[in-house]
């Protein structure tokens, strides 16, 4: 089993430039588009003094009455909990693995034998710093 | 064979990663200052009150759209991007790597699977471009960022949102949906910081994401007879044990608190159930969520440190190159320590 890093020379300046221009343009256009949303004022906040009549503020009394949105929120709550527990498990998994890996490394108080290697591959690990 | 397996990001990728991190951290700080405003009141004040925080959040959101569209376009129009795409697809080996990691944690196996290794050392040839965790991070972050961008854009103009959601409470509920969606990402980022900050071989930060692979020399030594990764040749930093224990605890507290906070602060303007608050659990939650924000702050610092390392690395490389030329000329070779 041997893996090769794909044999390419990184990204060409022209691709980077084109992507950057498109990125900025799409960002500006999408925000411009979103700010242009106009409500139909006829249907919003129609003044009628009762809750039943849908008067000002009656929506706060009624609360969120859209079932699909309620469902979405319940769904994302569940996703949060499931992913949260999984992420916690991954933290503990790595924590334990790191401790095992650390136990194999040379400890600072150990006597220095000559063949230590630094993480960057240079060969003078144990002796200077 | 290369025994220097850390330089797998191109220069553009390292730059993109750093910018994306900065932008996402700013979105976290502003967004969760709004969502957890009773726990992070000081953050709201610090960033200019409700007006300042929302303005900053929108500015960072604009930056995020630009960044992710930039990346998507680059991945499609460049041969490098297209050739790398196959590398992020999940494989059976990734499942094996996860199962072997569980075994490794329990002490039932002696090595991590090549698809799980962060430090590959002498066995770098066996290690793919992305570990199974790396692939998971790419997938989860891509999906989260897409959904958060779409829902965020809809929220941008609240009156516009009400076109689709009829009432103000429903529009507010949509804002809650946006905030709850981000909780997965904020927990994931805390783990990401731990994973790449506390690996004993790379502590305090894995430079892979900061030093481009063009700057990593590859050695093709003849002595291929090394058994294992060679981890036992590395020296552990004296502070690793205490720092990793403290930081690991902070990460766990941060994740648990943000998760609890997302459940308690259901966030409807008109709650479905009355939440009694003001007791000791609230105090714990306040401390915990602030600890979570501290973990994110450490992430920013480590990202900065990674970039400082890159600058130092560049200088060192240039210096060595100059020295190498001098030697080739017959000049005096200098010892570097």
Topology:
The complex is a heterodimer of chains A (129) and B (337).
Chain A: H1 13-35, H2 58-62, H3 67-104
Chain B: H1 11-35, H2 41-46, H3 49-77, H4 79-85, H5 92-105, H6 132-156, H7 158-165, H8 168-197, H9 240-264, H10 280-328
Helix pairs in contact in B: 1-3, 1-8, 1-10, 3-4, 3-6, 6-8, 7-8, 8-9, 8-10, 9-10
CATH class of chain B: Mainly Alpha
H and E order of chain B: HHHHHHHHHH
Termini Cα gap of chain A: 37 Å
Instruction: Please state the average pLDDT score of chain A.
Output: 76
Largest interface: pair, residues per side:
A-B, 81 and 105 residues
Please identify, by name, the CATH architecture of chain B: Up-down Bundle
What is the fourth-level CATH superfamily of chain B?
Answer: Transmembrane di-heme cytochromes, Chain C
User: Could you report the average pLDDT of chain B, rounded to the nearest whole number?
Assistant: 85
The percentage of residues in β strands of chain B lies in: under 5%
The percent of residues in helical segments of chain A reads 40-55%
Overall geometry of chain A comes to flat
> What's the tally of helices of chain A?
3
Helix-strand pattern of chain A, N to C?
HHH
List the defining traits of the structure above:
heterodimer, A: 129 residues, mainly alpha, 3 helices, disordered C terminus, B: 337 residues
What report would you give on this structure?
- Chain A is built from 3 helices and no strands.
- Chain A has helices spanning 13-35, 58-62, 67-104.
- The two termini of chain A are 37 Å apart.
- Chain B has one domain: Transmembrane di-heme cytochromes, Chain C (Fumarate Reductase Cytochrome B subunit).
- Chain B has 337 residues and is mainly alpha-helical.
- Residues 333-337 of chain B have low confidence and may be disordered.
- Chain B has 10 helices and no strands.
- Chain B has helices at residues 11-35, 41-46, 49-77, 79-85, 92-105, 132-156, 158-165, 168-197, 240-264, 280-328.
- The chains are: A mainly alpha (129), B mainly alpha (337).
């Amino acid at each position: 089993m041997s893996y090769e890093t794909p044999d390419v020379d990184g990204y060409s300046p022209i691709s980077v430039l084109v992507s950057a221009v498109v990125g900025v343009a799409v960002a500006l256009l999408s925000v411009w588009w979103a700010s242009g949303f106009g409500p139909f004022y006829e249907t919003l906040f129609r003044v009628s003094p009762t809750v039943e009549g849908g008067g000002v503020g009656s929506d706060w009394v009624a609360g969120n009455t859209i079932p699909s949105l309620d469902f979405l929120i319940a769904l994302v709550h569940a996703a949060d909990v499931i992913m949260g527990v999984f992420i916690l498990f991954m933290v503990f998994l790595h924590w334990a693995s790191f401790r095992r890996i650390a136990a194999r490394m040379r400890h600072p108080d150990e006597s220095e034998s000559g063949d230590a290697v630094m993480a960057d591959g240079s060969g003078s690990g144990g002796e200077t710093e | 064979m290369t025994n220097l397996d850390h330089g797998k990001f191109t220069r553009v990728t390292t730059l993109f990663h750093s910018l994306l991190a900065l932008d996402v951290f700013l979105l976290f700080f502003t967004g969760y200052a709004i969502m957890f405003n009773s726990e992070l009141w000081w953050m709201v004040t610090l960033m200019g009150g409700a007006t300042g925080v929302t303005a900053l959040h929108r500015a960072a959101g604009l930056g995020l759209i630009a960044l992710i569209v930039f990346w998507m376009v680059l991945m499609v129009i460049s041969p490098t991007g297209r050739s790398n795409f196959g590398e992020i697809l999940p494989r059976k080996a990734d499942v094996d790597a996860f199962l072997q990691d569980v075994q490794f944690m329990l002490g039932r196996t002696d090595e991590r699977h090549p698809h799980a290794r962060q430090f590959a050392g002498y066995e770098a040839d066996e290690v793919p471009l992305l570990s199974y965790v790396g692939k998971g991070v790419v997938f989860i972050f891509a999906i989260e960022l897409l959904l958060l961008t779409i829902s965020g854009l809809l929220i941008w103009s609240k009156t516009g949102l009400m076109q689709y959601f009829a009432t103000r409470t429903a529009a507010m509920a949509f804002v809650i949906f946006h905030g709850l969606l981000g909780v997965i990402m904020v927990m994931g980022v805390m783990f990401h910081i731990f994973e790449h900050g506390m690996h004993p071989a790379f502590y305090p930060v894995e430079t892979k994401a900061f030093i481009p692979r063009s700057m990593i020399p590859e050695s093709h030594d003849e002595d291929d007879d090394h058994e294992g990764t060679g981890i036992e040749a590395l020296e552990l930093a004296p502070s690793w044990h205490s720092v990793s224990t403290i930081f690991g605890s902070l990460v766990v507290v941060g994740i648990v608190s943000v998760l609890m906070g997302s459940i308690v602060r259901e966030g409807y303007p008109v709650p479905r159930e009355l939440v009694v608050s003001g007791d000791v659990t609230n105090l714990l939650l306040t401390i915990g969520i602030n600890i979570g924000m501290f973990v994110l702050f450490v992430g920013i610092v480590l990202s900065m440190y990674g970039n400082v390392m890159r600058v130092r690395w560049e200088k060192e490389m240039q210096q060595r190159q100059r020295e190498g030329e001098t030697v080739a000329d017959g000049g005096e070779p200098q010892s570097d320590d």
